[in-house]
Specification:
Number of domains: 1
Distance between the termini: 29 Å
Strand order of the largest sheet: 1-2-3-4
Number of strands: 11
Structural class: mainly beta
Length: 122
């Protein structure tokens, strides 16, 4: 396990990250019942953020060879892609969180010379 994310409402589910050599796996977990179903796989080292309803998730894609790390992949619970968002001008997206309305992601971009926050729309 490499991380845990829980919803804000009392009955909201929690997710854990499990690492394998070729992917990170988002899995439901209930503090009282234990591990639940595996939801989706994503590239190693990619930060993820659930939408408030836990029906969609975003994660930062690894950069293509020599390119910027500026693309957020949006998937449903089964891991089926629903779209991508590119943060124009960003070179190294870091953290990722979903807005309370589930329509935007908040992320930070940093480089060796500066840092900034951005929130690309879905």
């Amino acid at each position: 396990m490499t991380g845990i994310r829980c919803g804000l409402a009392p009955a909201s589910p929690c997710l854990i990250d499990e690492s394998s050599p070729d992917a990170e796996i988002a899995r439901l977990v209930d503090p009282m019942r234990g591990l639940g179903e595996a939801l989706f796989r994503r590239p190693p080292g990619s930060n993820f953020a659930p939408a408030p309803a836990f029906d969609r998730f975003g994660y930062v894609l690894p950069p293509k060879a020599g390119g910027p790390r500026n693309t957020i992949q949006i998937v449903n619970r089964a891991g089926v892609p629903e779209g991508q968002v590119t943060a124009a001008g960003a070179t190294m997206l870091n953290s990722l969180d979903c807005a309370a309305d589930g329509q935007r992601f908040f992320t930070s971009d940093y480089s060796t010379t500066s840092a900034r926050g951005c929130c690309p729309s879905r």
